[in-house]
Design the sequence.
């Protein structure tokens, strides 16, 4: 039963996620591109759920799909961007990018070919809030605290860079 | 390593120098918020950096010692690296306040950001765990992105910040994928059922034990490993501006406030290089058998050697064609990355030589960038023609600049020569004859463009447009220049004063790891 | 149903495809914000592979790194978008091919 549920969740969200990614790649309108990315982020949250990583799944929805993408949409609306115009000038570059991307996928799938033996059965002990909280407060305390420096630097930086020109 | 509260307290004491820097950063932020302006902020920052360096030296132990359950190295080379990085921030401070004031943009928040950037660099360079490397790298990069975009009313600065930001986060995505693959490999060495969580699997010492087990006899895993190292190298080579990933460097440095560009080119590069070097040493990329050093993964060293070769050639040739001094220094900083990489290809002794090179390079390059900043006529105008005849107008200025340029070239009595000599001699000892030869030949090209500027200054016709430099010699940059020149002369004559401590800490800090593995 | 059951390889394949889509997007799209969104997609793809490995090894390290990457991505979004706003104020355009002063 559990295995069936995992199978269904995986296929639904894998297809939705890749569809969201392709939507991001091909949508000329930045708003639609952002919405496709939100679809992709929700699907990744679903994939986390199928991997029994419940905490990360919820954080993914809250932080990525919720906070970060709202910020993106807000800026897109604020700047009132036009659609990207035609792409005629960069045909060769475009083709090159796709060839490189496909080569990358092929290469990495070849690299990972040995991993299909891992069936992902049994339960995952570190998916819930309690073990994750314990780990964060013990072994990963230093990175956890130092993340605050990044957030602080980003805060000061945003104030310096985006503050109105009046206040140099 | 099992968790215990005692260890936690002990670790907190071990990272005291970093905590002190954090405190300084927060204090600067609050002082700025309460409108305390003027010279007091840079002076406080400088004192904070000096005191933190002293703390690091006082608390550091010569043998390897980790804090926070294998997250951060606080012994071995860590205290010395901390001092180097603080020095890079400190020397930048001598040039920064006047520069910002001259453009009527006294952005005081920049001092807090400078301190946070130094914290990020220290975390990255002294990381004993790939998680910490990543977080330190991001802390540093975040501050550097902001430095690049700081002059928000200037289109150039916007563009350079935007470019640096996009390419930088693109590169860290690749680095992260590499770390992910390494993690995937590292966990394979025992069955999931038998596992008890005792800290991070991405700890470098843990990886040094697990990776050989996983790789042994497994072709599939070996391919994953090489892919992972390749991706990690992309991330690091981008940060140090080595050949295939260098293209952002001149544009970003050109758009960044000049003293901060010097900070980027020295501190940022040094942190990334040391992090890469520590990973290479701790994962035993080299092993010693009967007193002779061998490469564990020859393919990776070959890739590094090719990158080093192309970086040296490309950086020097393109730098020779520049007419803008800032772009010339940017391309020459690419070239210097090649020399440091050359040291990395030469094993354990090469790492020591590279560390020495990085420190000397920091001294001379911050000086050069700082003086270019002083001589700017208006925002970002650094064309070489304005430097003609400066030797008569401002003789002290021209003389000091010549010291930095001669040292960057590698002229004997100066520290730059000793640094280059050390790198080339270790390369020759490690049988990298071709690379060393190319290094020496490209140094000659380097001599052409550095000395051309000196010729411009002393033998060029005087220009009406040249700025009046004598009024810009206030006590702060003057002290900085005097200190840097003195240090360059001192380390040129007595290199062993810094070489032997480096030698000692690298031997005792990293040598033990090798001995314990019986290699 | 049995043959469709996902294993570690399936999840990694999804992750790699998403990463490649992000990479292609960075190389082909011209709108600065969309390029930035493609980078976010790449980071998410890596996160998926990390969680998969974490699940495969039944080990917390990967999950922890995902947590940290999310924090970093949030901070990066703030800095990136503020730079984009500053650029837009001066140029009224964020097309990366129109960065005139420097060659891209």
Sequence:
């Amino acid at each position: 039963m559990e295995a069936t549920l995992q199978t269904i969740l995986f296929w639904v969200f894998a297809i939705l996620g890749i569809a969201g990614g392709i939507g991001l790649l091909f949508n000329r309108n930045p708003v639609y591109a952002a919405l496709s990315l939100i679809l992709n982020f929700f699907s990744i949250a679903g994939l986390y759920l199928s991997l029994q990583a419940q905490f990360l799944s919820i954080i993914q929805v809250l932080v990525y799909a919720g906070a970060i993408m709202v910020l993106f949409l807000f800026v897109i609306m604020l700047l009132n961007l036009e659609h990207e115009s035609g792409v005629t000038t960069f045909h060769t570059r475009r083709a090159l990018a796709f060839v490189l991307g496909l080569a990358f996928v092929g290469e990495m799938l070849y690299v990972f070919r040995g991993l299909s033996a891992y069936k992902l059965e049994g339960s995952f002990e570190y998916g819930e809030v309690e073990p994750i909280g314990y780990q964060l407060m013990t072994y990963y305390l230093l990175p956890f605290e130092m993340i605050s420096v990044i957030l602080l630097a980003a805060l000061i930086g945003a104030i310096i860079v985006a503050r109105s020109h009046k206040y140099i | 390593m099992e968790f215990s509260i005692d260890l936690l307290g002990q670790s907190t004491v071990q990272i005291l120098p970093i905590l002190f820097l954090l405190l300084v950063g927060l204090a600067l932020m609050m002082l700025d918020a309460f409108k305390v302006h003027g010279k007091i902020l840079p002076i406080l920052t400088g004192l904070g950096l000096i005191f933190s360096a002293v703390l690091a030296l006082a608390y550091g132990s010569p043998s390897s010692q980790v804090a926070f359950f294998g997250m951060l190295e606080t012994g071995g080379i860590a205290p010395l690296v901390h001092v180097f990085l603080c020095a890079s921030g400190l020397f930048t401070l001598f040039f920064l306040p006047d520069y910002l004031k001259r453009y009527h943009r006294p952005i005081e928040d920049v001092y807090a950001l400078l301190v946070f950037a130094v914290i990020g660099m220290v975390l990255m360079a002294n990381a004993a765990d790939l998680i910490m490397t990543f977080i330190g790298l991001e802390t540093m990069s975040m501050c550097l992105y902001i430095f690049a975009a700081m002059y928000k009313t200037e289109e150039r600065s916007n563009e350079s910040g935007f470019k640096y930001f996009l390419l930088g986060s693109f590169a860290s995505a690749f680095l992260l994928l590499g770390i992910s693959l390494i993690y995937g490999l590292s966990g394979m060495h025992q069955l999931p059922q038998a596992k008890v969580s005792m800290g991070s699997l991405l700890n470098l010492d843990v990886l040094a034990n697990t990776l050989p087990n996983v790789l042994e006899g497994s072709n599939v895993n070996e391919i994953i490993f090489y892919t992972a190292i390749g991706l990690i190298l992309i991330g690091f080579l981008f940060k140090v501006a080595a050949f295939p990933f260098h293209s952002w460097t001149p544009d970003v440095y050109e758009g960044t406030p000049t003293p901060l560009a010097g900070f980027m080119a020295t501190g940022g590069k040094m942190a990334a290089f040391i992090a890469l070097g520590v990973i290479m040493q701790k994962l035993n990329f080299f092993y010693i058998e009967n007193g002779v050093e061998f490469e564990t993964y020859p393919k990776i060293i070959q890739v590094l050697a090719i990158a080093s070769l192309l970086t040296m050639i490309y950086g020097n040739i393109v730098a020779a064609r520049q007419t803008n001094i800032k772009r010339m220094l940017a391309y020459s900083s690419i070239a210097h990355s090649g020399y440091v990489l050359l040291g990395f290809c030469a094993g354990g002794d090469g790492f020591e030589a590279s560390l020495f090179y990085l420190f000397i390079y920091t001294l001379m390059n911050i000086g050069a960038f700082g003086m270019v900043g002083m001589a700017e006529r208006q925002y970002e105008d650094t064309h070489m023609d304005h430097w003609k005849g400066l030797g008569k107008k401002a003789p002290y200025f021209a003389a000091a600049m010549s010291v930095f340029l001669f040292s960057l070239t590698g002229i004997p009595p100066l520290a730059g020569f000793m640094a280059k000599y050390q790198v080339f001699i270790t390369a020759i000892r490690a049988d990298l004859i071709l690379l060393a030869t190319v290094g020496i030949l490209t140094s000659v090209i380097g001599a052409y463009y550095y000395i051309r500027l000196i010729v411009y200054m002393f033998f060029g016709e005087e220009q009406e447009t040249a700025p009046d430099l004598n009024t810009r010699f206030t006590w702060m940059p003057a002290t900085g220049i005097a200190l840097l020149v003195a240090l360059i002369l001192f380390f040129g004559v007595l290199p062993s004063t810094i070489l032997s401590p480096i030698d000692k800490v690298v031997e005792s800090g990293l040598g033990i790891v090798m001995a314990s593995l019986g290699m | 149903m049995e043959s469709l059951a996902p294993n570690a390889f399936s999840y990694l394949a999804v992750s790699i495809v998403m990463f490649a889509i992000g990479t292609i997007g960075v190389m082909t799209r011209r709108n600065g914000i969309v390029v930035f969104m493609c980078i976010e997609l790449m980071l998410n793809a890596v996160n998926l592979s990390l969680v998969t490995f974490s699940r495969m090894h039944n080990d917390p390290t990967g999950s922890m790194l995902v947590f940290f990457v999310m924090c970093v991505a949030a901070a990066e979004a703030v800095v990136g978008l503020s730079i984009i706003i500053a650029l837009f104020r001066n140029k009224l355009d964020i097309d990366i091919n129109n960065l005139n002063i420097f060659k891209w």
The mean pLDDT of chain B is 87. Residues 155-186 of chain B form the longest helix (32 residues). The first strand of chain B starts at residue 66 and ends at 67.
